[in-house]
């Protein structure tokens, strides 16, 4: 008689079933439309990573003992520096999420591209990987990260885990395993290793530790694959076993592993409509409200001086981590729906530089924040199918009440994608912080036609600079100064 407490046969464990799905995905055809979305996401992620090269959290990591003095061949995007593959995955990963300007998905409640791409960049090494193969590996990773969310959310998210990293790490494993050509056993083992390395607490949102989550998830995903390839071991039941990932991270009765394994490629997750790029450099949960505020201001030519009261009513899930009435730091401003809406109503634009320096402390902004109230929308239930809606109501000093409402807005994707012109505008605004102007357009064009690239290492080289090409001041400061009427410093390049 078999022992009922014994683990299931190895081939029936969740890790092995997921490994089988990953292997099948490596050769599954991807529709043309999904390829276009994938290219846009990769392009966008490279741009926001370049924009963050000089962000404090990234500079600290680049200068941290043990990270700064390591030699290696893996590049740090937007710099002339190189590190070991693992350290580069960590630093590029943190940079990719430092501005909170990266793409995201409502299903995951997190950011899909930054969970896989930095590890993929490091995994290239000296391998000749075509753009087409890279796109396939990227789509496989996104598939796994979001499929994991389908089995554990929203309990996982509400419990306080940061899904970008706690779930994204498995997407990173899938993408890297695809690039490395790991076997079925090795993929299952890497997933088991990653189950123990998964981490990220939402309590650290609004601090440097949030992008650090992403850096470590990428480093851990790459490490898990390299260790498994070298013969490291892990439990075959690291997910469903007693005190395994599902029970520890969610708890009995709060997940459904079958949902993770069902209906793959129907459609591919990269083609899901609730996946979008960010138009604003702040938490995606604020975007619906900001968009409504911009629409109000434009439609009614609102003079901020005539605003008596601002009411923000987002879906309750969107407010829980963005209810910061008076942000004290630029990072807190990224997680303040009140600030995002006030900025939109004050300036009619919400540029990248609105979340830097002392922009959140401007007297005009603080005055509007004094008149702002945010609360969960009473008509948007927690368990509603659509959970990314918001309503903004503005009452003017003459008693006029104006309002705009949207039921669902998950970034710029699905039926509301960014145009090529908009992609270029965002990419250029980001990339000019790290690259000389003459290098930006060729990189953009190469990423836009990624499927025809012969060697991804050559593509990455376009994102690197020499010490002679570092900007002396950040061009976004010029843009924001011009928008606010302040004197703009002259942009120069270090000779």
UniProtKB/TrEMBL annotation:
* Gene Ontology terms for molecular function: lyase activity
According to the entry, every stretch annotated as the MmgE/PrpD N-terminal domain falls at 17-253
Q: Start and end of every MmgE/PrpD C-terminal domain?
A: 280-439
Quote the Gene3D superfamilies the UniProt record gives. Answer: 2-methylcitrate dehydratase PrpD
- Name the domain of life: Bacteria
What SUPFAM superfamilies does this protein's entry cite?
A: 2-methylcitrate dehydratase PrpD (SSF103378)
Which family, according to the similarity comment?
A: Belongs to the PrpD family.
List, alphabetically, the PANTHER family matched. 2-METHYLCITRATE DEHYDRATASE (PTHR16943:SF8), 2-METHYLCITRATE DEHYDRATASE-RELATED (PTHR16943)
Q: What is this protein called?
A: 2-methylcitrate dehydratase PrpD
* Species in which this protein is naturally found: Paracoccus pantotrophus
Lineage of the species this protein comes from:
Bacteria, Pseudomonadati, Pseudomonadota, Alphaproteobacteria, Rhodobacterales
